[in-house]
Amino acid sequence: MTQTSENVTWLTQEAYNKLKDELEHLTGPARTEISAKIAAAREEGDLRENGGYHAAKEEQGKQELRVRQLTQLLENAKVGEAPAANGAVAPGMVVTIAFDGDEDDTLTFLLASREYASSDIETYSPQSPLGSGVSGKKVGADAQYELPNGKRANVKILKAVPYQS
After folding, report:
1. For labelling alongside 156, which of 11, 22, 42, 95 has CA 20 to 30 A away?
2. d(Cα 26, Cα 70) in Å, to the nearest integer?
3. What's the order of all strands across the beta sheet hosting 123-124?
4. What are residue 109's phi and psi, to 5 degrees?
5. How far is CA 144 from the centre of its chain?
């Protein structure tokens, strides 16, 4: 299969290993646990009014969705080193931008796939309008991206450093 840069997710070896471990857990012990919950709930009787059974089936559905997401992500992943601290915006970087060049109106975010998302820092996908607008630009450069209303926003890149988890 030919991969384009839009469906490739760049991961560090550490992130790849973490996601692979999660997938192995979900397809092994977690599947066994949810099957046991469903079987136990089924033994309680009438399935139409069995809240435990329906909750376990819903949990199973969410778990299987995550398995499919992880499988697809890992199939399309390219494992590499963390980006270089060369001032160029790339996935895995923490980027600070100023809107319309106004250094009092800034946003700092992690440019990465949602698998990196954390409560510590806002995360934008490299495929998002903002992410694709700033990718490849150097610190000090101006960039543009399209807003949902079709207008274009101008930003200046103030800082780009590798993310440290």
Report:
1. 11
2. 10
3. 123-124, 106-111, 93-99, 152-162, 142-146
4. -150, 160
5. 23
Task: Say what the pLDDT of residue 114 is.
Answer: 66
CA dist., res. 54 & res. 34, Å (int):
12
Residue linked to tokens 């991206």 = 145
Sequence length of the chain is 165
Tokens linked to 78: 């390219």
Output the pLDDT for position 65.
94
Per-position b or e across 124-155, b if 16+ CB within 10 A of its CB: bbbeebbbbbbbebebeeebebeeeeeeeeeb
Question: At residue 161, what is the residue type?
Answer: V
**pLDDT given at position 5:** 46
Please state whether 148 falls in left (phi above 0), alpha (psi between -120 and 50) or beta: alpha
Low-confidence ranges of the chain (pLDDT < 50): 1-5
> What predicted TM-score, i.e. pTM, was given to this entire model?
0.58
> What per-residue confidence (pLDDT) applies to 44?
82
